[in-house]
């Protein structure tokens, strides 16, 4: 369930965090290479997405080397880090499309 105090992705992902995480987790090295969604100024950038678990057992998707997507932030444009959060929507959209292509 996305945070209500963070901007929402539009459109919302069609797949759940668990579906994306589990598919990544089943891949060799638990990762996949994807391309960010394009913007008016960009055609997209290749990035690596990896399924991870922290030392407290919290699952997350590491995208672009430093952006963490948690299940509680899936569907938000930013995660819950700090006051503004880290942008994650441009990673979540291609991950969602990737699952559609594979499933």
Describe the protein's architecture and organization.
The chain has 103 residues and is α+β, with helices and mostly antiparallel strands. The protein has one domain: Alpha-Beta Plaits. It is 23% helix and 21% strand. The chain is built from two helices and four strands, in the order αββββα. It has a four-stranded antiparallel β-sheet with strand order 1-2-3-4, with helices on one face. The protein is globular. The relative contact order is 0.26.
Topology-level CATH name: Alpha-Beta Plaits
> Which series of helices and strands comes N to C?
HEEEEH
Number of helices: 2
How much beta, percentage-wise? Answer: 15-25%
Number of strands: 4
User: Taking strands numbered 1, 2, ... along the chain, how are they ordered across the largest sheet?
Assistant: 1-2-3-4
- In total, the number of domains comes to 1
- As a percent range, the share of helical residues equals 10-25%
Overall spatial form: globular
Q: Overall mean pLDDT score?
A: 86
Q: What structural class is derived from the secondary structure elements?
A: alpha+beta
């Amino acid at each position: 369930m996305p945070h209500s105090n963070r901007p929402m992705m539009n459109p919302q992902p069609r797949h759940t965090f668990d579906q994306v995480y589990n598919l990544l987790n089943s891949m060799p090295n638990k990762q996949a290479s994807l391309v960010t969604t394009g913007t008016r100024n960009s055609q997209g950038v290749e990035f690596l997405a990896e399924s991870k678990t922290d030392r407290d057992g919290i699952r997350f998707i590491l995208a672009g080397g430093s952006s963490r997507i948690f299940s509680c932030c899936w569907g938000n444009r930013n995660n819950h880090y700090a006051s503004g959060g880290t942008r994650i929507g441009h990673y979540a959209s291609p991950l969602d499309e990737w699952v559609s292509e594979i499933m």
